[in-house]
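PROTEIN DESIGN WORKSHEET
SECTION A - STRUCTURE
LENGTH: 325
TOKENS:
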């Protein structure tokens, strides 16, 4: 019998920098995927609640880049209405159909909160509406679903060969700690919001000590998502001072900072110039391309910017459900 715990913990390899697809318009999918593949991106981060997986699947399938599927690392996520064990595999198979794939490299629990089930037609690609992302201000949260039961169903997907690895997203330390106490196949990734204004150092230390890779989403502070009046990471004077010193953009500096802390990153862009800039930070296809490192003094300067500021705040969406507090 294969030791799936050993397999998951010893054979895991994921590119350092990936393309995030949150906020990518369906109409932009084909050009963006072709540009990304031609530039050297090999990791693509997807999710049903981004409502573009069907178009991304078509873009992968019709890509003119010539990059084989086995050279790509494709991630998707389990949406909250599908946490009950009997719904986990059908939800994955729906994502596979939308992405036109036979397997995923990584499948994450998107949020550690279950919603009431939303029915869907597995024979139809795409989503007719955004009901799977509607919590109704928390009224659709289902408190009767056990995370342990969900994880057991996730483990079965590895055993069936439908996914290579499983992990989580937006999990605080105590949920990770509990999950590790009973998992046969431990999570290989925790994908969380990390940028200079939300550094999550203690979570990062915990994950490193447990051999869990931290993948930073919104590493640039979500310039296309933030609301009026929210802080702007990319115009921070300290970051601008350091980036100007090295002749790089603030976005490149933020990515380098995350990589130097031991994080992997996913950054969204549909602009070919920005795609190339993001990939040229210091890694390409997971291989270090330069010896550039920020000094200890510069890392300390960036550390001083931490204000535990989140652009993604569940307590704003789900009444009485402050996941991180």
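SECTION B - SEQUENCE
RESIDUE ASSIGNMENT:
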């Amino acid at each position: 019998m294969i030791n799936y715990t050993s397999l998951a913990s010893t054979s895991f390899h994921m590119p350092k920098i990936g393309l995030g697809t949150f906020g990518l318009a369906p109409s932009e999918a084909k050009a963006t995927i072709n540009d990304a593949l031609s530039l050297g991106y090999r990791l693509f981060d997807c999710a049903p609640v981004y409502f573009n997986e069907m178009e991304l699947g078509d873009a992968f399938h019709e890509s003119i880049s010539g990059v084989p599927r086995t050279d790509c690392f494709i991630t998707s996520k389990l949406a909250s209405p599908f946490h009950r064990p009997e719904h986990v595999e059908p939800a994955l198979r729906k994502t596979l159909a939308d992405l036109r794939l036979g397997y995923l490299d990584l499948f994450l629990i998107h949020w550690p909160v279950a919603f009431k089930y939303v029915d869907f037609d597995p024979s139809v690609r795409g989503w007719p509406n955004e009901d799977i992302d509607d919590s109704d201000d928390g009224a659709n949260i289902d408190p009767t679903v056990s995370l342990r039961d969900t994880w057991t169903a996730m483990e079965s997907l590895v055993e069936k060969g439908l996914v290579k690895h499983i992990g989580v997203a937006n999990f605080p330390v105590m949920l990770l700690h509990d999950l590790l106490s009973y998992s046969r196949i431990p999570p290989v990734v925790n994908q969380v919001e990390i940028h200079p204004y939300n550094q999550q150092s203690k979570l990062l230390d915990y994950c490193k000590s447990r051999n869990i890779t931290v993948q930073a989403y919104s590493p640039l502070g979500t310039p296309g998502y933030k609301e009026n009046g929210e802080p702007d990471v990319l115009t921070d004077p300290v970051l601008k001072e350091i980036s100007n010193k090295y002749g790089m953009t603030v976005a490149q500096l933020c990515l380098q900072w995350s990589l130097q802390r031991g994080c992997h990153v996913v950054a969204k862009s549909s602009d070919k110039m920005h795609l190339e800039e993001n990939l040229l930070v210091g890694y390409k296809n997971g291989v270090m391309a330069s010896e550039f490192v920020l000094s200890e003094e510069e890392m300390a300067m960036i550390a001083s910017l931490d204000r535990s500021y989140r652009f993604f705040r569940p307590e704003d969406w789900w009444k009485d459900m402050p996941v991180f507090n």
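SECTION C - NOTES
The CA atoms of residues 3 and 185 lie 9 Å apart.
Residues 1-10, 283-289 have pLDDT under 50 and may be disordered.
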